[in-house]
Amino acid sequence: MLTVGTVARIEGADATVLPLAEDGAIPDNLRAAADAAGFRGGAGTSCEALTTEGRVVLVGLGAAGDVEGAGSHTASTLSGYARIALDARGLTAERAARFAAACCLRAWRPAAIRKAEDADAPRLAALDILLDGSAEFAGVWTPLEAAVRATLWARDMVTLPANVLTPASFATRLEDIAALGVKLKVLDTRDLRRKGFGALLAVGQGSANPPCLAVLRWRGTIEAPPVAFVGKGITFDTGGIGIKPANRMWEMRADMAGAAAAAGAIMALALRRSPAPAVAVLPLAENATGGASYRPGDVLRTLSGRTVEVVDTDAEGRLVLADAIHHAIARYKPQAVIDLATLTGAIVTALGHHRAGLFDNDAALAAHVAAAGASVGEDVWRMPIADAHREDINSDIADLRNCLTGRMLPDACHAAAFLREFAGDTPWAHLDIAGVESREEADGLMPKGATGFGVRLLDRLVAQRFEGPHRA
Prior knowledge:
The protein is of the alpha/beta class. It contains 16 helices and 20 strands. It folds into 2 domains: 133 residues, Leucine Aminopeptidase, subunit E, domain 1 (3-Layer(aba) Sandwich); 322 residues, 3-Layer(aba) Sandwich (Aminopeptidase). 54% of the residues are buried.
């Protein structure tokens, strides 16, 4: 992660960044360079000048004073420098911290799995911040840094290839979060079989890498039931016997982005010592093809006791989530459950790569989720679960079927209707993050690649709804 710290004066930086509002006053020694470049402080613009004190980059804040946009622009423009300095004497500590957070988020690059000389390519590593008074900066920066660090951890996890990130190694990597004071518990195949996780076991039984269930618990200090995050953790998805086309199947290494986000949210809470109790339940499996793979037509008995007819083995995410949601509710009695999953192509058809789909059984919880997402730039769109969607997944031989087959089906709504059955009366929200878990091109706070979508949303949701006297 980009290292951020305050300084009393700027020394040793490869470049100094000076943010300026649109049509703001430009220092005399920089005016000629700004005029030559036509720089007026507009959003998304910058101008470089060489001075007797070194290289200075003017970055525009625009008319709205967009420090996040300026921070992102700085990271993308100066990515080849190892160390830069931000002259933030014209910004409040809060705005300087937001600039730094945006710079960190945009500066992230995937962990390199390359030969050494390529891995050592120049990258932005340090940001020094000069403020008029830095005493209050730490108080503003600490919670922002926690969310940023956790988001970058989630991005790194999503980037790992499936031959490195198996269900077992995913669980092992959670020890980094446990070291922050979080309790980690992992149920292996024997535990899952004894307890009756029939859906999770079925999805994972075709793989040489067995499934497991990982639970992260942050106890906080508030005497209240926890908020539960449930994340789909399919470390690779072939589609099972209903195998996917080869084209772009490599992207299925990111089918555990929901689990990475749920774990990352717990990491953020622990880093900033949130008073709110929370738990993340992560069903981890590979959906592989093999002699032991579960089949279309199989009937599975889930942890809840409900039986499910398997129509398509490629609709496996809702199966593992069904067991995990039931476990979260039965074991931890949470005040709310939010699940995250790269679940359906249908949500991408509906919303593209701009918003996650939000489904729920509680309008108040949904409103808080949407507000939290909007406040951190992780936007969602509320979607319906109609009575007809629930009726569609009735089965002739089981309590439910996991999906329908055919063209032009509302599969995202069917999946949500399926999951709602396992949430019962507990306030529940489902985020279908297919389409927003990674980006083909850099944009805003998101570089190309994994986004870590959901970490900052959940962290902000906890801060806004589940901490302090205003909590639900």
